[in-house]
Each structure stands twice: as structure tokens, then as C-alpha cells.
Design a protein that fits this description.
Blueprint (H helix, E strand, L loop, with lengths): L1 H9 L15 E5 L14 E5 H8 L3 E3 L5 E3 L2 H6 L3 H4 L19 H10 L4
Antiparallel strand pairs: 1-2, 3-4
């Protein structure tokens, strides 16, 4: 729908974390889900490669207030691996919207870290 298209365009069709441009492997995630009171606005969305989106939605990955990636130590503990994801920990997002109003809202990022992230 319009939300998905708007987020894809805001991120210039690139994964926020890796810069990947292959559209079939990119997907939009709400930072604060609609079911939890999050709005259907671009500043509550992020474009991620599908594997990273899965980690984000399941709490193994989050974004801090400075737009740095954080990987939960629980990923390795729960699944006995995740080395290729651990290298992302602490890295800055490589792609963000150019418009300040489309940037991920810190209040939604904060909510995700407090309520979803398995830190």
C-alpha cells in the first residue's frame, strides 16, 4: 500500500543497514507496530533486507537513538551463530531518508529498544 511505497521511496530503494538495492529482498517494517499504537507514517517505517527485517521484528536487532545498529547477544545464545550479523553491531545506518520529517522518529526507535529488543 501507500505506506510501503512511501518508505521504499524515502530510503531510495536501499536497505537502511546494508545499502542493498535488490528490491525483491527488501521489505518495510513498522518500528512501532500498528497493533501497539504506532502510526502508518514514514517516520515509523524502515526499509531492511528481509533477513534483517526478521531479526528486527523478533527483537534480535534494533537501532539506537544515534542510528547505529545493535545486535542482541541473545542471537548467538538462542541460535548458536549469527557471526555475520554480529559484525553489524555498532555500525551506523548507511541509508536514511533525506527529509527530516521522514527520518525514523527517535520515540519509535526508543519504543522498539524498550519493548521488542532482547538486549
Amino acid at each position: 500500500g501507500p505506506f510501503r511505497v512511501s518508505v521504499i521511496e524515502a530510503y531510495q530503494k536501499r536497505c537502511a543497514i546494508t545499502g542493498e538495492r535488490t528490491i525483491p529482498v527488501l521489505d518495510v517494517a513498522h518500528i512501532k507496530p500498528l497493533a501497539k499504537g504506532g502510526p502508518n507514517t514514514v517516520n515509523n517505517g524502515i526499509l531492511l533486507r528481509s533477513d534483517l527485517r526478521t531479526l528486527f521484528l523478533n527483537g534480535y536487532l534494533t537501532i539506537d537513538k544515534d542510528f547505529n545498529v545493535r545486535i542482541s547477544s541473545r542471537l548467538a545464545a538462542d541460535y548458536g551463530g549469527g557471526d555475520s550479523y554480529q559484525v553489524l553491531d555498532g555500525q551506523s545506518l548507511v541509508q536514511l531518508p533525506e527529509s527530516i520529517v521522514e527520518m525514523p522518529a527517535r520515540e519509535f526507535l526508543d519504543w522498539h529498544r524498550k519493548h521488542v529488543f532482547l538486549g
